[in-house]
Amino acid sequence: MRGKFITFEGGEGTGKSTQLKLLSEYLAKKGLKSIPTKEPGGTDTGQELRRILVTGDKDKFDATAEALLYFADRHIHMVQKVWPALERGEWVLSDRFADSTVAYQYYGYDKRVSREDLDCLYKIAVGNFKPDLTLILDIDPQVGLARSFKKADTMAVKELRFEGRELAFHQRLRNGFLEIAAQDPQRCVVLDADKSIEDLHKDIVDVITERFKF
Ligand SMILES: Nc1ncnc2c1ncn2[C@@H]1O[C@H](COP(=O)(O)OP(=O)(O)OP(=O)(O)O)[C@@H](O)[C@H]1O
Ligand SMILES: [Mg+2]
Question: Top-level CATH class of 5-212?
Fold first, then answer.
């Protein structure tokens, strides 16, 4: 049977990476093999694109260039990693996916890419395929950003290109993710991320159990 594709979305420091790891461990205990992955950078080529996308000056290129690079990364990711794993019956947990592109390049920027153009790029890169479930972690951006900056202190490569943007940008992102969830309530579940790591993990397990009936 084909595996499930679950995506983790939300702004900076909402706990996506932390929760993805915990869910992967939980699924392993249930005897389900899952592959943790991320965007950008889920493949070797994607790692090179990730460095270009998430480090350096925030204005080094515009929303259009970003969208094209993100979808190039996404297409490589789907073809080389996500689809083959799902075919093998493994679950794939992705730290960010296409909703992040819509949130950042459409809702986030003043000079944004149109929704039609993003939908068109999605069609080229991913076709009609969609995640089985998207978990949107929601938190006040000030709380999330504070977590991200604290974490970055210990990172060798500082992935802070987006954190450098103004608070209003991060507010627009948050609202963008909530709108995306409202537009696709079958696929998306919004979770309050302003709680302990353990409590949020429990909420995620509840969603998974209820959604996939095990
Ligand atoms: N519920 C929580 N409460 C307090 N701190 C948390 C919580 N979840 C994660 N953290 C801490 O906040 C930091 C950011 O968490 P994490 O890296 O999981 O977020 P993220 O959404 O992946 O962030 P980014 O967008 O920067 O990749 C980490 O140092 C993590 O340990
Ligand atoms: Mg992360």
Answer: alpha beta
